[in-house]
Every structure is written in C-alpha cells, then in structure tokens.
C-alpha cells in the first residue's frame, strides 16, 4: 500500500513539474515599452507572411488601424505626407489592419489610395500581443527591435516631426 501512495505522489510531482515547466517556457508575448517587440502574426495583401524581421535595421512605426475609423485613415495619409517630406529618413511604416479576414482590406486601400505597406492581422494575434484597446494605436520600434514609444490615439504632430526628422 505504501508503494502505491509513494508512486502516486511521485507521479503527481512529475505532472506538476511538467505543467510548471510548460507554463514558463510558453509565455505569451506582450508588447512592453523598453523591451523587445513581439513579432507580428500578419500577412501582406498578396497573402505573404510578414515579420518584423523583414524590416530589421530600420526604425518602425507599427500602426494599428481599422477601415471604419476615419481618424485612422487620416493618420495614414499624414504618414504618407511625412514620408514625401522626409524621403531620406530611416523610418518604415507598417499599417496593420485589424478588421479580420471578413473585410476586403484591398478594396479600402484602393478606394482610399493608401500607398503605405498594409498588412492584415487576420486572426487578431498581433492585436492581442500588443494589447490593443482601440485604433489608431502606434508603436515606435528601434532598429534593434526594442519598443521606444506607444501612442494610443493619433501621434501628436510635434512627435511625428521628431520621428521623421530622425
């Protein structure tokens, strides 16, 4: 009888250890200013998988937007204007649409004449990793992949000027 109790206790300890190990090794990625940016789980409008490492070595503005958010579209147009005004900057903008797979983002991009690289967060995994509350929300990521700033709502114009001037 004691052997069965000992084996049961040992088995419980092994199972508990396995659960603890798996929980520690599978931590969910979360965006925190001052820490490494979680990778994005997104596709471009041609269906190709994209990753933050595709733009390694550049400062990135990762902008989350929705097609029903008029202020988001205005901000994307502001980004385009800044890109034209500061063509020699080392800044790259990723316009991350969060409307899911049911919305035709390409139609919105065409209709609004958006010239920025647009990617889709079809399963909203990136929105979850970046703890998105609403749109627009932007993250500034340095060339080494560290999050420098988070802006909930529009990026203030003076901050945009500083970002684009370098």
From TrEMBL:
Q: Where in the cell is it found?
A: Cell envelope
Name its species: Pasteurella canis
By its UniProt entry, which Pfam families does this protein fall under? AhpC-TSA
Domain Thioredoxin residue range list: 31-166
Name of the featured protein: Thioredoxin
InterPro entries per record: AhpC/TSA, Thioredoxin-like_sf, Thioredoxin_domain, Thioredoxin_ResA/DsbE_sf
Sorted alphabetically, which SUPFAM superfamilies does this protein's record hold?
A: Thioredoxin-like (SSF52833)
PROSITE patterns (UniProt xref): PROKAR_LIPOPROTEIN, THIOREDOXIN_2
Does the record's keyword annotation contain Disulfide bond?
yes
Protein keywords: Cytochrome c-type biogenesis, Disulfide bond, Redox-active center
């Amino acid at each position: 009888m004691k052997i069965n109790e000992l084996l049961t206790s040992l088995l419980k300890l092994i199972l508990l250890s396995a659960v603890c190990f798996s929980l520690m090794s599978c931590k969910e990625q979360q965006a925190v200013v001052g820490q490494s940016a979680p990778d994005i789980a997104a596709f471009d409008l041609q269906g190709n998988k994209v990753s933050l490492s595709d733009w390694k070595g550049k400062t990135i503005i990762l902008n989350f937007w929705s097609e029903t958010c008029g202020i988001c579209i205005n901000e994307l147009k502001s980004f385009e204007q800044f890109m034209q005004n500061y063509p020699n900057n080392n800044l790259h903008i990723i316009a991350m649409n969060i409307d899911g797979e049911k919305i035709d983002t390409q139609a919105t991009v065409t209709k609004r004449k958006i010239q920025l690289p647009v990617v889709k967060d079809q399963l909203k995994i990136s929105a979850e990793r970046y703890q998105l509350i609403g749109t627009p929300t932007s993250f500034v990521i340095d060339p080494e992949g560290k999050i420098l700033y988070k802006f909930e709502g529009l990026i203030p114009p003076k901050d945009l000027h500083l970002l684009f001037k370098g």
